[in-house]
Amino acid sequence: MIKIKRTNSSHLDFINLVDKLNVYLKVKDGDDHDFYNQYNNIDVLNHVVIAYINETPLACGAFKAFNENSVEIKRMFTDEPARGKGLASIVLLELKKWAKELSYTSTILETGKRQIEAVSFYKKMNYDVIPNYGQYRNIDNSICFKKDLD
User: What is the pTM of this model?
Assistant: First the structure.
């Protein structure tokens, strides 16, 4: 049975999933990992979603305010044994619902071009590619997305 929990970044299950994400990204991002990692401090994340199957935490995601209208999706991850079960979609839809409840009108996010599965996932979820924003503006490996909350 899949269970979804809304929480914040101090939740131990989220911390443990993010630790696994960081191990994965250190390999995937290679030499770029330290650059990206400086923007992934979880202490600022007050809106976290964790997905469980049979009480085991297997996927997570979070958002933070980007501006008065948009939130930035952060720390999306599905543990390897649970990939392909739709948990990432469930987490992302819950984050979208939560952001909408808080009167935000869009979500944005950044992922690395080397994260082929992530890029495909966001396109499948109808996110549109946008020009790289903020700290990602001149980073060749970054690809940024946006989706309006309807």
Answer: 0.92
